[in-house]
Amino acid sequence: MRPDMIVLKNGRVIDPASGVDGPRTVLIENGRIAAIQDPALPAPPGATEIDCAGRWIVPGLIDLHVHLREPGEEYKETVATGVRAAVAGGFTAVVSMPNTRPVIDNAHLVRFVLDKAKEAGLARVHPAGAVTMGQKGEQLAEYGDMKAAGAVALTDDGRPVMDAGVMRRALEYARAFDLPIMVHEEDLRLAAGACMHEGEVSMRLGLKGFPAAAEDVMVLRDVELAALTGGRLHIGHLSTAGAVRAVREAKRRGLRVTAEATPHHFTLTDEAVATYDTNAKMCPPLRSQEHVEAVLEGLADGTIDAIATDHAPHSSVEKDVEFERAANGIVGLETAVPLTLALVRRGILSEKRAIELLSTGPARCFGLPGGTLAAGSPADVTVIDPAVEWTVEPASFESKGRNTPFGGWKVQGRAVLTLVEGRIVFGGERSSR
Amino acid sequence: MAHARRHLLGIETLPREEIEAILDSAASMKEVLRRDIKKVPALRGKTVINCFFESSTRTRSSFEIAAKILSADAVNWSSSGSSVSKGETLIDTARNLEAMRPDILVIRHAASGAPHLVAQRVGCAVVNAGDGAHEHPSQALLDAFTLRERWGSLEGRTVAIVGDIRHSRVARSNVYCLQKLGAKVRLCGPPTMLPIGIEKLGCEVGSDLRAAVAGADAVMMLRIQQERISESLFPTTREYSRFYGLSRAKLDWLKEDALVLHPGPINRGVELEPEVADGSRSVILDQVENGVAVRMAILLRAAGMPAEASAA
What we know:
heterodimer, A: about 425 residues, alpha/beta, Urease, subunit C, domain 1, TIM Barrel, 2 domains, eight-stranded parallel β-sheet, about 30% helix, B: alpha/beta, Rossmann fold, five-stranded parallel β-sheet, four-stranded parallel β-sheet, about 35% helix, globular
């Protein structure tokens, strides 16, 4: 027996990085991809063979935008519960957001998160550090120190960097360490007091709206600052037609600008707020149909590089209240795969493009390991059953968060097996020798 | 015979027949209100709690008097000095009040959707007495009642609503109610007080007062909702009054028999010149009286009591 060897057979391999899409056998040895081979070739003797008939074998999914809430809000989520949710949703790696209490704005706290992730031992956790001390938008944090400790990106996510001068220096200074800056684009003055997208629905509900322009003006500002500084800019949870246009234009100009969109922003419109459901409250808010369509176009044409969940667990304390008082955000790790595959069934994305947006694309945005099944890469692999139909039951989530607008939805497709460095971290009930 | 208890959360989802049934019932209730002995036993043994999370004089007193005439036990609960200031959530407050076995909770709250949240969590009937900038159904019904009393029918009539449309729950409920009863609605205010999306309501929308009131059968003037405004939406009340206030001089712009309404409280000298508020076209105090009759009808409906038998 070769316990260090796993063979994934009878599946369809979709590896956007190499362009492979077809029946292949995946050989994993010592935590690395040993080979992607013709299904007719025999598996090495003694290996653990896993039957993947009817399933897709894809590079481990990577989520660039996850709130693990530790330290400080462990009642909402911990690193341990967050990574359990990640692997259950098919993610082998997540980028953790630094808006914890205290804010992750120094190397010690970056190491704290990595230590917790190591203890949990499931998905890889790549911490993002803060752009500014305490995310106050004033003084730059220690980027070099945080990178040396393992930070992969910088963000004040949850808040914008409102001061354009600070943003300019952040983009400039981060160049020294080749770190991308992920931005939460929301002009706080235009969005003052707002709790949903501004439009017909907000008018009817009597809720203060947040115009799409509050996001657009900040994206346009930061694209110009990226041009000025040569810095790496990553637009987090982009949600408007204007933001999609701005990113498309930035790419055409050859700027170092990447972008992500969330499943909820490409699946739902602001109509979901009509019953004052606080699980439809997030920032940026759910937008109207024309914005959703622009995001879908951006996902299809390559303007948007990654699907990221903005997994934001909250407890009933934050959500079981009046809409305008409720916290922003929903959990996303355990529903991202079926919501993305729905776009494949609707003919908006090819299978390969869908997988690229969930793995190869995010890996490229931040230069993360993974996102490929090339021989020699770490064996971070996700096996997806694209056909299985299931009902989203928040009570059975691995995440502590139950805050989802998708509860009760009948969906199709889910991860059934997740491997990190060749180790099965989720699923595997169909394995055979 | 008791029917099922029914919430009244808004006019947007209330069918025309239901609106008309409430107005018909309110007509019987107005007769009761004008009796020497203003008491009928319709809601004897029923408890109504007026939960006011936001200050109100007119609406709260109106619901209280309505409940008392119907022989219900009316309790007023207000958030100032209550458990809310000690950090209790809305849902906890509502469920605690519900545990005291009321039949109807009347709720006024500064947050849009608050009565809807409560209605999902309690077993008794919930009546929305105004939620944020969303709806104020009893106000729209009493306005419709007042106009119907004067005109017989609203069919084909035109009503102009003027002022702070953005923050006005009265405007939203009135648009739905007036349109369902066959009237045309014009909305007028400075562009900063006309919310994005307002054109979707099927009203004429504009910022020229003269054009808005010309030929209208009634003009409803709104108060500037200072308590909901945190930014500069117009330069001064002086300029606002000049362009959007109704003065004696501007009455010439109205049809001879046009009615002037206001949901109150009035800011005299801002949206209404005192002489207009107190003038012959004003039906403002009729609105207040009719408010009691309409709220009696609303409470009967909420308790599942038929109107026919309730005036006896």
